[in-house]
């Protein structure tokens, strides 16, 4: 398993620690504005049934995903993981009274998690250009480990390279290359680029089963109950 070099990890930690000291508990500390942060989480979770599910949020920041999840269900277990100590400490304070919500300070590619999770998501994790690591190798290593750990599936978001302008420090992924990685893990995938013009999300589902009679994914038939087959 490839791991993020310490040089790149230090850059990430320093960047977010500096923002936290400047903005405190705010989406600005994560480089977001509130409206878009809420939309990103809405997109990442909208293809999953969250009822009675275990959820792993990689690069969880302040654990703000719980605001959306708790609107959909009260019956879930959440673990947030991040490499930035300031963010994890703040998240623990915010959710200290919630027994179903926990956080750990660790590197996802290094940590050994002793149980699988139903749903695994990552938002904003792949948005910065790495200096000592190939970004696509980093993404693929994340994707493979997360998919192996998930029972229902995974959802990650990305900055798209289908843009007119890129900052020097940001990494913009090629949607087709990310989709190719996804298809190596499952036939049952979704790429969404219909909510923001310069960002996209990829969903990779564990259940690839289908009936030969209709060649429609079983998961789709179960989840999309409005769909009728006659």
UniProtKB/TrEMBL annotation:
Record-linked Gene3D superfamilies: Vaccinia Virus protein VP39 (3.40.50.150)
Endpoints of the signal sequence: none
Domain Methyltransferase, first and last residues per copy: 51-155
SUPFAM superfamilies to which the protein is assigned, alphabetical: S-adenosyl-L-methionine-dependent methyltransferases
InterPro entries the record matches: Methyltranfer_dom, SAM-dependent_MTases_sf
Membrane-spanning ranges: none
Protein name: Methyltransferase domain-containing protein
Organism field: Aliarcobacter vitoriensis
